[in-house]
């Protein structure tokens, strides 16, 4: 999706803060939100659909909210859709008394149990497909020059640019379709771009940018 959330590589938004104190959370509620997000997982909601929902946040909200606040907003929307709570309960700050009005709640688990389960039963996104890879290591490729209405992992700053395949990653779940509830595996490549190819003002720079990109994002140069 093309939107205000895709700010990578764009100018005019000020410098990136690199002197962070290293703390993962800057407010107590941020840690709680992260914990809730791990423990209250909505069945049938993929990470790509969750990202798509987050990308639907209105620009003034997206730019004005703290990072984990937009997480909370996205989580609430998926919880409401799943029937775990209502919009009125979220707005009022407390749950209702009619349990029959709610869907089947998630199984109660501690954060430690969730993290252990993730460690023991890590979800895999790679898989085998019959089609042979269209590109090979060392081949020059051009990225698609257009976006679309849904979720995509091809950033705007890298569209219509020429790079070189430097590694083949195997076939992985294609996020653009995963966000629509369709699980399809597609070949994925690590593509390296000269910084000057992405940003004209980087002319003469030796810097390079590497991106993992799915096959349908690419064509032969």
Quick take:
The protein has helices at 28-39, 47-55, 59-64, 67-82, 87-92, 111-120, 175-178, 195-198; strands at 126-127, 140-143, 162-173, 185-194, 208-214, 218-220.
Total helical segments: 8
How many domains, as an integer? 2
Shape: globular
Task: Give the CATH topology of the largest domain.
Answer: SH3 type barrels
Mean pLDDT: 86
What is the gyration radius calculated from CA atoms?
A: 20 Å
**Unreliable spans:** none
Task: Please name the CATH architecture of the largest domain.
Answer: Roll
Percent of residues in beta strands? 15-25%
CATH class of the largest domain: Mainly Beta
SS-based class: alpha+beta
Describe this structure in words.
The chain has 221 residues and is α+β, with helices and mostly antiparallel strands. It has 2 domains: 28-120, no CATH class; 126-220, SH3 type barrels (Roll). Helix content is 30%, strand content 17%. It is built from 8 helices and 6 strands. It has helices spanning 28-39, 47-55, 59-64, 67-82, 87-92, 111-120, 175-178, 195-198; strands at residues 126-127, 140-143, 162-173, 185-194, 208-214, 218-220. Strands 1, 2, 3, 4, 5 and 6 form a 6-stranded antiparallel β-sheet that branches. Helix 1 (28-39) packs parallel to helix 4 (67-82) and helix 2 packs across helix 4 (67-82). The protein is globular. The model has no long low-confidence stretch (mean pLDDT 86).
Strand and helix layout:
Elements: H1 28-39, H2 47-55, H3 59-64, H4 67-82, H5 87-92, H6 111-120, E1 126-127, E2 140-143, E3 162-173, H7 175-178, E4 185-194, H8 195-198, E5 208-214, E6 218-220
Antiparallel strand pairs: 1-3, 2-3, 2-6, 3-4, 4-5
Helix pairs in contact: 1-4, 2-4
């Amino acid at each position: 999706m093309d939107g205000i959330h895709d700010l990578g590589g764009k100018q005019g938004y000020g410098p990136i803060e690199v002197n962070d104190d290293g703390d993962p959370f800057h407010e107590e509620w941020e840690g709680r939100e992260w914990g809730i997000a791990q423990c209250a997982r909505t069945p049938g909601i993929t990470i790509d659909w969750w990202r798509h929902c987050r990308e639907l946040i209105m620009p003034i909200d997206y730019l004005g909210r703290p990072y984990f606040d937009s997480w909370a907003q996205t989580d609430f929307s998926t919880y409401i859709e799943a029937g775990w709570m209502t919009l009125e309960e979220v707005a009022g700050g407390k749950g209702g008394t009619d349990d029959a009005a709610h869907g089947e709640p998630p199984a109660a688990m501690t954060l430690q149990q969730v993290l252990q389960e993730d460690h023991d039963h890590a979800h895999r996104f790679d898989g085998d497909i019959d089609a042979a890879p269209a590109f090979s290591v060392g081949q020059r490729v051009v990225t698609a020059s257009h976006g679309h209405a849904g979720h995509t992992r091809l950033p705007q700053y890298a569209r219509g640019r020429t790079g070189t395949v430097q590694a083949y990653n195997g076939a992985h779940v294609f996020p653009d379709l995963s966000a629509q509830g369709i699980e399809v595996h597609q070949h994925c490549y690590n593509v390296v771009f000269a910084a000057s190819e992405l940003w004209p003002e980087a002319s003469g720079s030796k810097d390079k940018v590497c991106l993992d990109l799915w096959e349908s994002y690419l064509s032969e140069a």
